[in-house]
């Protein structure tokens, strides 16, 4: 009777025998080979039981629901791309080249830490093999009492003089080590499980927590760096000034006078509404217009163009011809 119970616990025990050698069952998801074709040895990632996607021959892994990760990557690339395309050229030519360089270093560090967090194994524990699960079931069964009450699925260990209770994972068929938890999204037991982060598309655990912390730290610096430019432009909006006028100090030496800035509406709200909510002005260059043929209009004679740099003869001789 116990043997029948042991056979029900290991995953894959109910699988039907396939055309493998000696009637061994095929792994889940494997395609049976055609007659006469040489069998390619399967890699472990091809039959991995968790809910993960693998890329580059199993070198990179990601959670199955990775749409939010693509959104995170797209937002970082879009906002940073706009900053590098529009703000950095002006800041490099009018202020200092150090601002774009620092922003570029932060940007590449953020992207590197994000990819390391997303595509790295967070510390997944392999599931027990059928023989290991059967042996563990025998041990659990031997620890039970003679009554019909099922044995406890816990185990106690001592860590630094503290008793820590280990829980049994019914999916992975093993006692989870300390600080290990089973992720319901990825369907894996992860060592030192912190949380499943949809923004990075992966679990955060023992093997990628340092990259996750470096990602959020560098992203905060990059965000603060870009946010400083946003605050600067908000100050310029409140005064109805342009960056060029503020850097050149066009109205800074006249702020005590009555006409410090002739373009200001004397109100922060009015200045912001005038710039952000004002009407769109039509284009004046007519980019899609057709070039009109020359009408043969004679150009002005050279003698009729007044010369502003040279003096006339009458002014030189005092009006004497």
Automatic annotation (TrEMBL):
One of its GO terms (biological process) is protein targeting to membrane. Pfam families: DHHC. One of its GO terms (molecular function) is protein-cysteine S-palmitoyltransferase activity. The chain crosses the membrane at residues 68-86, 92-115, 211-236. GO terms for cellular component: endoplasmic reticulum; Golgi apparatus; membrane. It is found in: Membrane. Residues 25-34 have a biased composition (Low complexity). PROSITE patterns: DHHC. Residues 11-34, 295-321 are annotated as: Disordered. It comes from the Eukaryota. It catalyses: L-cysteinyl-[protein] + hexadecanoyl-CoA = S-hexadecanoyl-L-cysteinyl-[protein] + CoA. Belongs to the DHHC palmitoyltransferase family. This is Palmitoyltransferase. It comes from Hirundo rustica rustica. The lineage of its organism: Eukaryota, Metazoa, Chordata, Craniata, Vertebrata.
